[in-house]
Design a protein that fits this description.
Alpha-Beta Plaits, alpha/beta, Rossmann fold, 3 domains, about 50% helix, TIM Barrel, about 550 residues, eight-stranded mixed beta barrel, five-stranded parallel beta sheet
Length: about 550
């Protein structure tokens, strides 16, 4: 927890300051005099102090001077009236304080000033922390690390560079205080030196990460070393403070003299740490994986820009009514022609968008464009019953989904019955109790709802009767090789009968051959979607298809 000390001889001012700083991520201490402030500073890890300029016995300026001498890491703010302005300017010129807050203050100015002071504190102490930690025989300064690295690479041998990161440093600092946290980390790494082979060296490149160099080691040996290193550090941390749980991640890569720069390499390792987890905390970045992760980073960083540049588009796949061989409805599918990578698979970019939250922006765009398409097709293809839109998990569980959908329906003046929302079985199963009222609210708008990919997840059959569903879509895993499996045929047949008995229509997706089509027709499946009729096509081609019905 960030700790803030407020010093003022007027209780009313202290109360007003505390009120204005409520709900901020600061632990606030108050003192009515300089002596009170010294007592608090002696027993608490204060990072930022705000003091009034005029106080009896010892002024704010004298207090700041003494604190700067005894606690140089503390960042000071001055609170004062206009009359004290010139003296305060002198203090700022001497860099004794970082900000002057004038009475009366605006709440927003006060909060911003305190936040900036904490930012200044972390930046200031980051560099000094590095300097203190990188002075041992094991932890070098960065320039010395780079010099030794160049020497090792000059020996024409491969070198392993490893980035070890403690991802929960902030939590540890809040529990122990920064000084104790710093000592813990320093002790851990110093003790870890005993587990490492001769010739290894390192440096702290941030308060939460250390860079190691292992000259002349092969992959298997390096992995063994890193596993022992991680176990040793975790054990030392528990001895130091049993309540502390370390979340430690490691990424490493073998390099030779042809590598680019240390800065670029460390940035790559840092980016790739995001792919590690508590179950697989150590990651070897070989060339193949490095290229894969670089591609994924390019995709993730391109989404927003290329969405605005018109690189995303919608395709439409028809759903055919087996009783008439006419197009009943259609599913909207997202497509992306990347400016440098070409056409990307939705399975690839949607997965990445879900990982970092960009699926929300993509999903909103798809909903808007799909409803606009439904409005247009209501005019060009009036027999088309509906356009179905896939919802992500983030969209489904968003409190704004219903209002957003209503806004878009009103915006394009479309009949809500022309809209169908496809929600995957897995998404629904995440929180059945929450999703039922959400689906009910969506139904009240007049839209249809289908459960997508049924059979690929783990939804219990009894939920089919509870969910406000119009359509059940059988996953392709149930449809694939249907003609060759009697067990699958029995299961699919009973599923269709069950759904019909409770008023739910059934769509079979992924149908690719006529043998499967004939079986589904025999089972009285309502609708079929798949290559046997048509792949996903452009809206223009879909409009022409509507004029060429029925399918033969």
């Amino acid at each position: 927890m960030q700790k803030l000390l407020l010093v003022d001889d007027e209780k009313s001012v202290l109360s007003a300051l505390k009120r204005n700083l409520m709900k901020q991520p600061f632990e606030v201490f108050t003192a009515e005099s300089a002596n009170d402030a010294y007592e608090i500073l002696a027993t608490n890890d204060i990072q930022v102090m705000m003091t009034d300029f005029k106080m009896p016995n010892e002024s704010g300026a004298e207090l700041i001077a003494n604190v700067s001498s005894s606690y140089p890491e503390v960042v000071s703010l001055m609170l004062s009236g206009q009359a004290d302005y010139e003296q305060v300017v002198d203090l700022m010129s001497s860099k004794s304080i970082v900000k002057f807050i004038k009475k009366p203050w605006l709440k927003s100015d006060l909060v911003n000033a305190v936040r900036q002071a904490f930012t200044h504190y972390h930046q200031m102490n980051h560099s000094s922390w590095q300097q203190r930690l990188n002075t041992s025989s094991f932890c070098k300064a960065q320039h010395e690390f780079e010099r030794l690295l160049a020497v090792e690479l000059g020996k024409k041998q491969k070198v392993v560079i490893c980035l070890l990161n403690l991802t929960n440093t902030t939590d540890i600092s809040e529990k122990l205080g920064q000084k104790a946290c710093e000592k813990l980390q320093s002790d851990m790494i110093s003790n870890a030196h005993a587990t490492l082979p001769t010739g290894c060296f390192s440096y702290w490149n941030s308060p939460s990460s250390v860079v190691f160099c292992f000259p002349g080691f092969d992959h298997d040996t390096c992995l063994e070393i890193l596993t022992k290193l991680r176990s040793h550090i975790v054990r030392k941390a528990r001895q130091h403070s049993p309540s502390i749980q370390l979340d430690m991640r490691i990424a490493y890569r073998t390099i030779d003299k042809c590598f680019t720069t240390l800065e670029f390499l460390l940035e790559e390792l840092k980016q790739n740490l995001n792919t590690t987890n508590a179950f697989k905390p150590t990651l070897n970045i070989d060339t193949e994986l490095s290229e894969k992760l670089a591609r994924e980073r390019l995709i993730r960083t391109s989404i927003s820009e290329q969405l605005n540049d018109g690189k995303f588009s919608l395709a439409v796949q028809p759903k055919i009514d087996l009783s008439t061989n006419l197009v009943d409805s259609a599913e909207v599918l997202l497509r992306w022609e990347h400016s440098t990578l070409g056409w990307l698979s939705p399975e690839e970019f949607i997965r990445l968008a879900e990982i970092d939250g960009q699926i929300t922006e993509l999903g909103s765009w798809v909903v808007d464009r799909s409803v606009a398409l439904a409005a247009m097709m209501s005019r060009t293809s009036p027999t088309l019953k509906s356009i179905s839109i896939n919802l992500s998990s983030r969209q489904l569980y968003s409190d704004s989904l219903v209002s957003q959908l209503k806004h878009v329906i009103d915006k394009y003046d479309v009949d809500p019955q022309k809209i169908e929302l496809e929600i995957t079985e897995t998404c629904i199963a995440q929180d059945i109790e929450k999703v039922i009222p959400m689906m009910t609210s969506l139904k009240q708008l007049g839209v249809g709802i289908s459960m997508d990919d049924f059979g690929a997840g783990s939804t219990a059959y009894n939920y089919l009767a509870e969910l406000p569903l119009d359509i059940l879509k059988l996953d392709r895993c149930l449809i694939k090789d249907l003609s060759a499996s009697k067990n699958k045929q029995t299961l699919v047949c009973k599923l269709i009968e069950c759904c019909h008995s409770i008023g739910i229509r059934v769509v079979a997706e992924g149908v690719e051959d006529h043998d499967t089509l004939d079986i589904l027709r025999l089972f009285k499946c309502d609708i079929v979607q798949g290559y046997v009729f048509s792949p996903a096509i452009s809206p223009a081609k879909f409009t022409n298809m509507m004029l060429q019905q029925p399918f033969k």
